[in-house]
Amino acid sequence: MGVRAYPTAAVAMMIAACGEPQRPPALASTPLAPPASTDPAPPTAAPPMAPKPPKELDPTIASACAPPLESGILEGIELCGAPHEGCFGRVTKRNSDIAMLRIAQGTSADAEVVVTGEGMRVHAIIDAGRIELHTAKPILVARWFVPAEAPAHLREVANASATLEYPLPSDVDGAAPLRSTIGCAELVAETREVTIEEAAHVAGVTKASTSIGLYGPTPLRATLGGEPVATLRTGGRADVIGKSGKFSRVVVPVDGGFAVGWVETPTAMYGYGGHGGRGIGHIRNPGFGGQVSCPHDVPVLVRTGEHIVHAGTIETNTHFDPDDLARVFLRAGVELFHTAHAEIAAHALDGCEGVK
């Protein structure tokens, strides 16, 4: 068999048309990501909070009232970062120094304070209504009460003056709130002793003329003929600073101070119990004005509440002051309680004479 021959040119064209066999494209190399974690993501830490300084009071009103600075005035008071919130401690040292105390106007009694001690300064907001305050001089509150050791609490500040409220004496009933407004410069932290003479002076009288004894509940009037403003619950000595008809204007020791006002004059008259003595001398109306001497023994009664006892005898020819029976007891080394009242029956002074 012979071999079939193809033209050379034709073979070349066929090869050119077919070309080289095509190869599949190469795949791009992509790295595999790690499998997702099933654990929850840790919480993002909050940035540290900058501490807030204590909120200062409005500077336009902060200096409305600035009482004198005295150590001990803030003992037990809570210290806060803002009015009534963010409280962080209380003052426990009585000798803490008060570098600054400013009370805002209004009824909130918010105050800004700085206390120092041993190289430490503490800046805070306090409730000034809890501070126990007193006045530098005796004052007349609600027309009838003269405070002595009774503390006042701040209720309002306006125009550099403070409205104070005093607790109602425990031995007085039925009185309205005891409030008085006084200049901030007159406020002090320490209590002061107030005498009966000072209480009378506040009421416009220089001194008491005599005294009477009160028993049981006694209505007290601020003005002659006015309605009672309080009721004195218990009896006791009442120093007379004025008289009109059947009424006497008196000064009466009560819890925390003195009551000043008009009462109905009791039928039994009593001697003045001054000179620091206690008790009441129950006498008719001796008119001796000092020491007396009696030609007989004089029985002395002591009244405590509803009880009356024969507690002693003033011996014949003994010099004594019927107006100060408490001092007579002191001669025997006996001090009467402030609730005990020494009395002498009216007829027991018959025949007695004054001693010069």
Description:
- By secondary structure, the chain is mainly beta.
- The chain has 3 helices and 25 strands.
- Strands 7-18-17-16-13-19-20 form a 7-stranded antiparallel sheet, with helices on one face. A 3-stranded antiparallel sheet has the order 3-4-5, with no helix packed on it. It has a 3-stranded antiparallel sheet with strand order 8-9-11, with no helix packed on it.
- A hairpin with a 2-residue loop joins strand 17 (247-254) and strand 18 (257-264).
- The protein is elongated, with a radius of gyration of 45 Å.
Topology summary:
Elements: H1 8-18, E1 78-82, E2 85-90, E3 97-103, E4 110-117, E5 120-127, E6 134-135, E7 145-147, E8 153-158, E9 161-166, E10 172-173, E11 178-183, E12 187-188, H2 196-202, E13 210-214, E14 218-221, E15 228-232, E16 236-244, E17 247-254, E18 257-264, E19 269-271, E20 281-282, E21 292-293, E22 298-304, E23 307-314, H3 325-331, E24 340-343, E25 353-354
Antiparallel strand pairs: 1-2, 3-4, 4-5, 6-12, 7-18, 8-9, 9-11, 10-15, 13-16, 13-19, 14-15, 16-17, 17-18, 19-20, 21-25, 22-23, 22-24
List keywords for this structure.
disordered N terminus, 356 residues, mainly beta, 36% strand, 7% helix, seven-stranded antiparallel beta sheet, three-stranded antiparallel beta sheet
Low-confidence stretches: 1-21, 26-33, 58-63, 267-287
* Average pLDDT rating: 76
What is the percent of helical residues? under 10%
Reported for the largest beta sheet, the result is: 7 strands, antiparallel
Q: What is the count of β-strands?
A: 25
